[in-house]
Amino acid sequence: MMEAKPIQVDVAKGDLIEGLIKGIEVITAFNDGAPSLTPSELAKRTGITRSAARRYLLTLVHVGFAATDGKTFWLTTKVLNLGRAYLDSARMPRAIMPFLQRLTHQLGESTNFSVMDGMEVVYVARFNAPKVLSPSFEPGQRLPAHTSTAGRVLLAALPDEQLRAWLEKVELVAYTYWSVTDKDELYKELVEIRNQGYGLTENQFEVGLRGVSVPVKSRNGTVIGAISVSMSIASCSKTEAAAKCLPALQSTANTLMLWI
Q: Do the beta carbons of residue 135 and residue 206 sit within 8 Å?
């Protein structure tokens, strides 16, 4: 059902296209804190010269990935085609959707499948519950792993040495008053998740939002992602949420393991 397992490849420097690498860095230099950039600002963010930054930006304008007012540049919606290419070509999101759909109909809550990417968790598949108010996470969206229930489940699955190395590198930013920003406290919570086999968090990325998540494993026991339920904390208590969601989540994870 799933894609072939990736392997580590040692690539000779002569086989790399440095311009492509730098082009990706240029695109990802834009973010919420820098929705538009001048060539000088881009040069500082990417470590290239101003003239090179200008040429990259003009190239993006030429292919429709960026627009400009003559001074500053910003990305266009055409950049979304890059992420859409993954969603359209990868078998994993399509294969998991029927399971998420069944979960959502069973629980009446939005469900998703996520994977880790560096310091973030990425939503690769999601099925929204038919509610007026529903958490606004969509496929392709990234969240800081420490603020996401799925992210914490995936972090908890790491060997302790890797987990501690991740904690040393990460900056724990607060998104709500209740966000955990103390690394020792987060480590204790991750160990608890590791021991109990699931995660349940509230108010970590968005006030009023609760997540319940379990790991999804391959047949050889490797954790390859996490399935989660997103809900309002006003819908029920923590205990009720666990009793309602965990059996269905764990049953779905076990079924997926037979397919992977």
A: yes
